[in-house]
Amino acid sequence: MRIGRGKKGTEPAEEVELASTTPEVDIADEADEALDEVVTVEPTAKSAPADREENGPLDETEANPVRPYVDLGGVKILPREGLHLRLEVEEGSQRVVAVGLDFEESTLQVQPFAAPRTTGLWHEIRAQIAEQIGRQGGVATEVDGPLGPELRADVPVVGEDGVTDGLRTARFVGVDGPRWFLRGVIAGKAAEDPDAATEIEDLFRSVVVVRGTSPMPPRDLIPLHMPKTMPTATI
User: Could you give the CA distance from residue 232 to residue 133 in angstroms, rounded to a whole number?
Assistant: First the structure.
């Protein structure tokens, strides 16, 4: 597994040790604004697979401590052959704001957020994302997927010149865990091909979320950082 670093929403990734064959399209930018728009949140039910505690996405307390995870702060990633890991960095603050995973002609972007202890965020955030995509000229349809409710969307792709350059198919998935919410954006082959989708869904479920004990307002991004060390083995 190789790790790279890129600027979120600006130019292609500045390679550190990353060579990806999948074009980088930051299709989650449209959804970020939706997370910031909502000030008050009505209580909602959690949305997660029935077997989440066994098959993920896992909380740090549920994960196997001997597995060689790559520690990125708010999430831990399990290495696998052919997986390219890319950290997306906010240009002004140099803050890591997302983790991009490139695998077999597909991409998965993940972001962990703080959430209430007893209620979930995905049901309300999903509606906000769909509304935002619609305002920007895209189309989003809610379906029941393997991870629960998700959005299948055609998202406008805006070039560096600010001009819309067609639509890109994407899947927006989300899982509510204990005091956290994990959002994923799936693009590339896995957005449309069932076999490729299964591999990326498994990748999403292998993510471990590290919420920490510090108080955080719901919807705040759980801090991410560059890995301090790399594992010496893969499973």
Answer: 41
